Structures are given as structure tokens and as C-alpha cells.
Amino acid sequence: MSPDADALVLARALETLETVILGKPAQIRLCLACLLARGHLLIEDVPGVGKTTLAHALAHVLGLAWQRVQFTSDLLPADIIGVSIFDRAQQRFNFRQGPIFTQLLLADEVNRASPRTQSALLEAMEERQVSADGTTYVLPEPFFVVATQNPREQLGTFALPESQLDRFLMRVTLGYPDAAHERALLRGGERRELLPHIGAALDAAGVLRVQRAVREVHVADALLDYAQSLIASTRERADLKLGLSPRAGQGLVRAAQAWAYLAGRRSVLPEDVQAVLPPLIAHRLERRDAEPHGPDPGLAAEIIRAVPLSP
Amino acid sequence: MSAAPDLRPRALAWSAAAFTGGVLLQADRLPLWATAVSLLAVAWRLAAERRRLWLPGTLQRALLALALAAVVLARFHTLNGLAAGTTLLMLMAALKLLETRGTRDERILVGAGLFLLLAACLDRQDLLRVPLYVAQTLLCCGALAGIAAPQLELLRALRLGGRALLLAVPLALVLFLFFPRFAGGFWAIPRGDAASTGLGDSMDPGSIMQLIANYDPAFRVRFHGAPPPRETLYWRGPVLHEFDGHAWRRGPERLRLRAPLEPLGAPVRYQVTLEPSQRRWWFALERPERAPAGRVFLTYDDQLVGTEPVAEPLSYEAVSYLRSRSPAPPPAQLREDLTPPPGNPRTRALAATLRERAPNDAALVAAALDYLRSGGFSYSLTPAPLSADAVDDLLFRTHEGFCGHYASAFVALMRAAQIPARVVTGYLGGEWNPIGSYLVVRQSDAHAWAEVWLAGSGWTRVDPTAVVAPERLHRGVLDLLPDAFPTRERLLHSPWLRALFAGWDAANSWWGTHVVKFSYEGQLDLLRRLGVRAPDAVDLGRAFIAGLLLWLLWLGLRITPRPRGVRPDALGRAYLRLCRALGRAGLTRAPHEGPLALAERCAIERPRLAPAVEGLLQRYAELRFGRGADDQAVRDFTRAVAQLSLGRWSGAFP
Amino acid sequence: MSSTAERALPAWPLRWRAELTGRFARWIRARQGVDVLPLRLERRRLYILPSRSGLAFCVLLLLMLLAGLNYGNSLALLLTFVLSGFMLVAMQQCHRNLLGLQLQSASAPPAFAGEPAALLLALGGEATARPRLAASLPGATAGSADLPAYQGATLAVPVPPQRRGVLRLSRVRLETRHPFGLFCCWTWLHAPFELLVYPAPHGSLPMPDSDLRPGTRRRGSGALEDEWLGLRPFRDGDSPRRVDWKAYAREAPLLVKEYEAAASDVRLFDFARVPLADPEARLSQLARWIVDAEQQGERYALRLPGRTLPAQRGPAHRHRCLAALARFDEAPG
Question: In chain B, how many domains are there?
């Protein structure tokens, strides 16, 4: 299929997703952009707003092989990565791949697992490979992690450390549906039942193709200047604990490319950068005096407004 | 726009720097503990800014303020003195620093820095310190800029302040020259005591030695006319009358003015600028015609005694006659200078012998000098110590000493021989500064000589040292006996440094007379030189206003500074033009708004413009952010923007 | 007058002061007349006074002068004179920072009630850089911007949250304290700036169902030209012809096939039919629906007493509808 055809298919996929997750078109678009930018996605919200449904729907629409792991406090790294089992017949150890060997891993309630398990997952996310018993196993391509988590205030959770949060490209918050959609939800019944009936818009090869196309979306020098001054402004602000890392900066440009691609553009505009900035900084920047990990919708707008766009 | 990034720590650092500068300027004048407390407060506040240390609350600060004020009171016994007042102000400002919260507090601290600078200016005016004062002024002005705009970098803020200061310099000069100076105190603040230097009101044989080792200038002299030969330059200081066998004293304070002098020969006119000595002596060549204008008396023993110690550089005009005849004093006064030396039996015996042989007083004086010349006496700055009968010891045992010894011994000998005599201390000679064409008289030129009363010629100067070491008249002590001095003085005296010092001394002297001592008289004199006849304060006011107006005119006409910032390229300019046209039509681009967002807003808020504008905005987005824009495309875009006509928005919404 | 001035009246000194500034403002307004943008700030409309710090600096200078004269101390006097000159230079620089400033245009993007809004002033474009300009509405906080040379900049003047309606911002104060904060130079702009304040989108009533107005043909029910879009759960009132019976046969729930055109059923939001007593609450509810419907990509029409906006969608339509709500009941003229 041609890139343009892919774009059309993606547009269709987006619309399909919107019929499953009602009233959240912006978040859905962001999630898709995140995956197309080869980024891992963190969906954070209170239980019951459709986090898991969204993750399922993404996997369906992209036509990827997926696994779901419900994280619990007794989950061990081996439960995700896999384990070597002694094969009596062949007299040697065989590695039995864990659920991580898939194209889309849905890590449900990732902050319920112990830090050790979390770090095993996050390491795999970064390296796109796992090591067990001295052997390195490359994870399939594409490989995404869509993790969901409850806000930290919930009991029995282990917060992800900041350095590991940085490995998620975006953090998306769904929020309660508005009144009209709540009504539709109440009437429409269980949204998840719709999932099997959604056709896949793409397949693994298609996703890789789209990812390549995203990387080719043009980034002009003027845009790099703008992105750079945005990033720099977060480092200059004294009211933030930390500025954006260089990795986050790369992510910003990649995500903006994906956003531009979804909008059918061949080059990135400042508007694309501004659109992906909020989920990009949601889990990275914190005000000094703010509640930890509290939602701060005003911050992104503040950062954007503070950096003028030169003509 | 959104809340700016928090830049308060930088503003705080500026105010702390301005204050610290003021504290350091005063560090050598104010008590060490006060400086330490102030610097500690600065360090504390800056550290607290970085890592949220505890800072005192209102009550603690009030208590601390009271405690510090009490300590100042206990140390100085007053809060009114310059040093005490400055210390108190500094400590209170340091406390203020601990509670700085906003721009206002920070500016107050800069004010404190300027006030400390003012106190330093009041206290000391050496040329050497002027660069420090300039630096502190610059720092304070830079701090004002830095506090007003904390996002400025250090150098930019300093440059802003420095630029404004440079522009202010012409006006400052106008004000300095023409602002009418009403002399004199509205209120008096006692000054702190400073150590007194120079000749004292007593002399024992060793006291002059301490002065001779000091290379600091005592005063400078500018002759109106050719300077007299060096060996005649006896600068008269304290005259000592009372002798206890070892040391000489001035004796009880008596206010007796001198009768007019009978001059022999031409007068020497000159201007003397005294360095602060904290003593009351003014110096003049032997012998002054009358007391110079100022708070000074010419006493019966030809000495100039001021009413107050000299605390600041002081200039006066003086007239002296190198040769003169003093009027006959009342016999009672003469008798005071006849008191024979206590003890010293061998001296008395020598005096008796001389008296028997000599036909008159003049011959006796000559005989005594002969005795010194031929008796194997030598000039030495490290003489053997003398016992209680110091005169006997010198004349008959050690045979070595310097001016103080010989003057003392000679006067004692004269008195023992019934000739009225007294010791005169002062300076001899001086160093000619060819750059400034003036004479520097240093402490090392200190000298002591004798004066005897001879019927017919009056009080006559006799310098026994000149008999023992005739070369002393022509050269300074340092030249004479270099090895007797510490290294520093010797080094200062080396020829190549001497040239350097002559330059520095000339600058210092110019600074002292033309800047530090510039006064109302100086202002009038300047006007006179500018051609105003009989100038007064009104003329000064006129000159001042004229200068002010000229400066304002100059400031107003000054070309605007070169713009900073980069001019946008052709595409950017065309886009700005488009944005301006849109603005006139009622759609203003927000600072962060991208072209497509603007187009979208246009469709919403000004749908009628949208068809004309949307395409252009999209075109701009493609050209700016797309894959390379060729010049032709940019030109086309520019032309399209130029042809665009959107009309003007009436102000009302559709 | 403008509703930004509506603040609780404080104690009498402040009231007195407010009265005085008000009188002064009216005088200025009468003196300057209404401004027509673009304009260039001329000398006669710039006012300059020392700021509070500037006054304190003056007092400091006076003290220094007294001390210098008292001691007859030339160095202290010289310092005083240098600083006096510095003060005057600061005044001139402050004044020049505003003099000749080009004010290109001003406009205010519409905002929802209760949310902060902004008046955008487009400034500059000349070859002079003008740092630290600030602008404010009476009684509100100031927005600030640095104006780089050549480029010009937009200064966003914050407008505090407002009530629904059309807000007339009659007066903007543009000031600068550059470079040392010792002086404040300012000017007043009087131009008919208008800010449209939409009603705040509030209300939890469900959106009225698609309402087919008489005369509209129901397009797209399975017609060939419509593109299949996807499935959505069955709702009451859906045509049985569009139910995906094959899926139902596979024991899926009742699903409805959606088509491009079919998705654009028209919703009619009628002021008269909102079951709320308070007209403002009705307007808020209507705003809520408009925002939601637009977000869902639905077509909607708005009917207000005496005015009907035909069904459409898109941001411009949304704006028209919300603007109509904002101007609802507006006194004519």
C-alpha cells in the first residue's frame, strides 16, 4: 500500500476508535500518534474510565499481536520476560518466552507491581530486547508497551521512578466522560463487547511502514529552533523541579512528526509540537510546590504561551 | 503572558552584591565584628535561597536589631558618630537582607550599598580608592538594572548601568563645577579618631627617629615663583621650651600672638596642602609673615597652631621671609627659655667654661658650634642609648646621634650658658616633583634645630646638625644613611620607583587640590577664569542651569542606540506584514500562535477574511516549515501579501 | 463602564483615590479622544513619573547632597551628582522606550465566561528594540513582553474572568519601567476593543436527540454513495435496516452500521425547549451541547427567540452559535 493509502486507513481507524471510546477524540489521536512515533504509552486515570478498553482498541485497530498482563504486587520479572525450563528430553534449558514477546504489550495497572518487576519491563522497553540467563532475545518489531496506571494516591501501589517514567513517550489522561457521552455510555452497554467487531485497519507490516513514513515527515530548521526554545524554556523555569531531558526533546520532535502525519501533512508545524507537548510533559515536569504527579493542565499552556514563535 | 520563570534569586543576588560591595568598602574602617556579621547575613540569605534554610521571623529580627543596636552603642558610646551611624546602618541593612521578599526590599539594599559608598566618600578621599568607589557605583547601578529585569545576564545589566552612568558624567561635571556650594555644617557628626601622625608636642632624642623611617608625605608646597634653595627650607613646626633632662616639651598652652616681623629681603609666597595628621600644627617656612587665612594662630614663638586637629587635607596660602629680624619679646618670656637643664653636670661645667672664654653671646654660640665640629661627633641614626643625663652622655661619652640629639644638647648647653634658647622641630628640605612642579615634604624629612636669642639679631636659627653633618642640608636622610632604613622605605626610594612615585604623587596632589578641596572659592575662581567679572552665587546658578540645559539637549538629540536582534528574512518580513494586515482587520496573532492556528481562528472569528487569508497562511507554513523554499516562491508570497487588501476592522464583532 | 471596574468598594481613602484616578482618566480621555489603530505613540500622550523606588532614590540623593554640602566633601558631592545624572538618564531612557512605539492592532479572541481571556496588542515592527513593555486593564494584572528589533511582538493583556456578554474594554494602560525601574512611563489607549464572552459550557442535561426537521430528506440510510464508517451500539430509534444482523447472528450485541452521511444527523438546540428556569442556565446548557456536538462532529442547529441558525458544523458555525448565545438578550445598539 502507498503511504497515502496508509494515511487514509489510519484516518478510518481513528474514526472507528472514536466510536468505541466516546467523546475522547483528542486523547485517541494522541495515543495513536504516540505508537506511530515508536513511543510507549502510559495511560493514567482513575479506574473505570476505559483505559483498558482504549488499549485493547488500539491493538485491534493496528492489527497487532498483543498480550495483556495484569500487574500485581506478586508478579515477578520472569512472569513477564519468560523463564528457562530444563527440558529433560534434550537435557538442556529451554527459554520459555514470557508475554513480553509480542507486538503490543498491555501492562495493566503497572504501578501495582513491585519496583523490580517494573524495572524489568522498563528495561525491555528501552532496549527492545531482554536478557535471560546470559542470552539476549530480541523483541518483535514493532514493539509497544501500553501501560495503564492508577494515580499514585491509590493504596498498594509503587510509583514509577522519574527516570523510568521518561521512557514513556506520553502520558495520556482520559478523564470522566462529559454528560452527553456518559448518557450514551449508559445506554450503549459494555464498550468492550464491541472490540471483536472492529476490523483491523493495519497489520504489523503496515505499522512498520507507517513508522518509517512518520520518520520521513520533514522537520525544518525553523521548527527545530522552536522546539529547542520550548525545551530550553522548561530548563530555565525556576518553578519546575527539572527541565525536559534530551530524550524527551527527541520524543517531542518524533511525536510532532507522527501528529503531522496523522493530520496528513508532509512537514511538521509548530502547531503539531504544541499539540503533543501536553501529554509529553505530563509525567516529566512537575512544579516545585505542586502535589506530586497531580494533573497540571495549565503547565503546558503556560510553557507554550511563554515561548513566542518567531516569524 | 504567562508567569515568567522565577528569577527572584538572581535579583536577590544583585542586591546582595551591591550591599556586599558597600560593606567591603568600609571593611577597614568599621569594626571587624560588624563587617563579619554583615557578610554572614549575606551568606546566610544566599544559602537560604538555594536550600530553604531557616530564616529569622519578624520577632527574632526585631530582637536581633535591638541587640545589634545595643552592641553598637556599647562599642561607640554614641549612635551619632559617622562610624557608629554607618555601622548601625550596615547592620540594619544586613537584617533587612534576611527578610527580602520583593523588588522593593532588594532596591532598599542597593540604597544601603550606595549609602555605605557615601560614608566611604565622606571618610576617605584618596585617589587610590577612587577606582573602588567607581566600581561600587557601577555595581549598584547594574544591580538596579538587574533587579528590574532579572532575566538580563550579568554583563548586560552592568552595561546598562554603566552606559547610563557614562551619559550622566557630563552632567555630574557641570553640577560639580557650578552647583553652588554653601559651605559649612548644617549639623555636626563627630568623626571617629584616627591615629595622629607627624611631629608631636614633645621630643625625646629617639622620637624623631620614628618619623624619619616614614616615607609618607606630610605636606606639599607649590611656590608662587622660583623655589628657594633647598638648604634654606626649614619648615617650622612645634617649638619646644621645657626640658626635663631627657625630653623636650612644648610646655603649657599659652595664647600669645606674635608681634609683626621686621623683614629682611624678599618674601616667599607659596601654597601648602597639609595631609591629615590629626594634630594642630600647620607648617610654614621660617619665618611666616602672618597667620594664613583660616582657623589658625601665629603664636609668639613663630609657630602656626590651628584651632582643630587637621583631619582632612587642608590648603592655605602663606608668606614667609627667609631672613628677618624678630621683635624683642618681653623679658619674662625670654626668661622662660633660660631654664637650665636639670642634672647634666658636665654640660653645665662646659657651659661655664665657654661663658668665661667668650666675649659675647654670638661668640659663645660660635665656640659651642666649634666644639661640636671638632669634638669627633658623628651623624648616626642608630646611636648608642643615652642614660638619664642625656646631654652629658652625648657630649662626653657617645659622640653620636642625629638632629634630635644635637638640637637638644645644643639648646641645653646654651641655656646652661645663660643664653635664651629653644628647640624647633619641623621638616628640612623636601623632594621636588618635576611632574607637578611642587615640593613634597615627607615625614622622613623631619628635623630638629635650635634657636637662640641674640641681642641685636633677635631669635636666630642655629642648626647643630648642619655642623656635624653638613651634607644633611642638601640631601634627605635616606640618601645619607640608606642602610638605617627598612627595606620598604629603601625600595620606595629607589630611583626608578621614585619617578613612578613622582607621577603618582602629582596625580594625588592634583586630585587633592582640584577635586577633594574644590570649594565655593574654587567655583568663583573658575568663573573668573571663564571671564565673569566679580562672580557670585547667582552667576554660579546661571552657569549651572545653562550646563544642565545643554546636557539635556545633548541627551535628547543623541542618536538612538543600534537595535539588537536579528532582522527576519524576506519570508519572515512578508509574514509579519500579513500579520499586521490581519491585525488591522481585527485578528491579532498571539505571540505563540502558529500560522495554521491563526488561519483556524480567522475562519472562526473573521470568516469573511478567511478565503483571502487561509491560503496565504498555509503557503507561509509550507515555505517556512516545508522542504526548502526557493527565492521565487518567497517573492511570489511577498507579492501576494502586498496585494492583499483586508480593509480595516471597525471594532465591532460581526 | 467596563465591568472590570466592578470590585468591592474598599475603605474611603481608596475610594477617594479611585475617584481621583477616575476623574483623571476621564480628563485624559477627553484630551486624547478615541484612538484609531494603527498609531504611533507621540510625546503628548506619554506620561512619566518616578516610581515608588524612584522617589526613594530621590530622597537618598537629597540626603547625599545634604551630607556632601554639610561636610563640604567634594567626593560625596561628585557621587551625588553622578547619581543625579544617572537618575535623569534613567528618566530619558524610560521615556524613550515608549516614545514612537508603533501600535499595529488589537483584538481579543472570544473566551468562555469564567475563564481568563486576553486582549492581544500587536506592537512594534520598527528597527528599535523595546524591552519590558507591560499593558493592563484597569484593576487587572499586567501582561508583559519584550519587543525585539524589526520583529514586533504581541502583548497579551490579561482580562480577568468575565460574565457572558460583550465586554467593551475601553481603556488599556501601556507602560514601561525599563531600564532601572526608577520611573514609570505610560500611556492610555482608548479604542473600542470588544471581547465576546461565550456562556460557560455547563449543564448535565442530555443532548436532544437528532431532530429531523420537516422537509429534510433523511440521507444515507444504506444508500450506495455513503461510505461505511463502522459499528456503534444500537440506540433506541435506530432504523432496523441499519442493524448489523450478521453480527447479531454471531451472538454479538445489537450493532448499527454507521455511514458517513448518516452520522451527520441534525440536532436542534432550541432555547425554548431547554427545561431550565434560569435563562443564563439555559444558555450555559446550550453552550455545553454546542461544544460537545462540535467535538463529536455532529451537525447542529440553534434556535433562539427571534433567531435561528441553520444546521451546520465546523468551527465557524460553532463560533456563530456561541456568539449568538453571548449576545443573547443584548440591549440593542
Answer: 4
